Amino acid sequence: MHELKFGIIGLSPGNGHPYSWAAICNGYNPEVMKDCPFKGIPRYLAERKFPEEAIPDVRVSHVWTQDEKTSRHIAAASLIENVVSDYSKMIGEVDAVLLARDDAENHYAIAKPLIESGLRIYIDKPLAYDKTEAERIYDLQVYDDQIFTCSALAYAPELQLTPEDREFIGPIRVVEAEVVKDWDKYAVHIIEPVLNIIGRDRKIRKVKAEGNGDGRCVATFWDNGLVTIFKSLGSQPGGIVINIVGDRGSKRLEFNDAFTAFRSALQEFAAVVRKGKPAPRRDHVLQVVEIIEAGRKG
Q1: What CATH number matches the domain at 157-256, 1.20.120.530, 3.90.420.10, 3.30.360.10, 3.50.30.50?
Q2: What is the pLDDT, as a whole number, of residue 212?
Q3: I want to staple 94 with a disulfide (CB 3.0 to 4.6 A). Which of 7, 21, 173, 275 is the partner?
Q4: What pTM was estimated for this model as a whole?
C-alpha cells in the first residue's frame, strides 16, 4: 500500500487540530510539542506510543496557516516537511487536504480552489451553520465522495451503543445530550453521535430552541415520536455526555478519548481517499446542519 500524502490547513481560534491531527499521522517531537498552545494535546499524545500508534501509510507532508511562524512551529512539533506560503501550492503535491479549521464561515472560500482542483478534502466540523451554505459547498464537488466532513466524535467508541446496551435499554424514547462551549461550533459533537444511535432514517417533525445566557437547549421531535434534546453549556463547566432512555432501561455515555476519536476519523478519511469507503452521505450531513441551523434561530 503506497503512502498517502496529506496537506493540512489551520488555525482557527481555540482549535489545535493541525498539531494533533498531523501528530497522529506522523508522530511528533515532544520537546517542541510541549510548547503547543493547546495544552491538552501534548498531554494525551504523551499517553500513546509512537510510532506504533501513528496511522500507518499516511503522512501529513505540507502545512499552511495564516501565520508563517505558527506554521513552522506546527511543522517542527508534528514532523511536517513542507511549510507553504499559499495553500494552493499543495495542489499537485498531496493526495488530499485536511481543512483543520472549525470557523465554518470561511469553509467555502478556503475549500473552493482545492475542491475545484479535484483534491479530496476533509472539512472540519461543522461543515456550515446553515443548509444553504452546506449545499453551496457540496455543489463544488467534481465527483461523488470528494468532500468528507464530520465530527470525529461520531467515531468515538465510548459514544456508541453495543448490541448488549440496546437489548438492555429497549426501544429508545428520549435522548438528552450536552456539550461544553458554544452551540455553533460544538453542538455537532453531540448531534452526530446521537443521530448514529437513533438511526439515520428518521425525519424531523419539529425543532424547538431556547437560549439561556451563553448556553442553548434544542429539542428535536422525530416522526416516530422519539425526542432528542441537545444542550450546549456555553461557559459553564461540564463534559460531553449522552443519556439514552428506553422502555426497559437507560444508559449514560461520556466522551473521554480525543486521540482515538481523531485517529478513527482520519483513518476513515484515508479509506475514502483510497476509494475503499464512501464519504459520509450528503443527506446525513445536511440533517446535522439542519439541527444546527434551527438551534441558532431559536
Answers
A1: 3.30.360.10
A2: 81
A3: 7
A4: 0.96
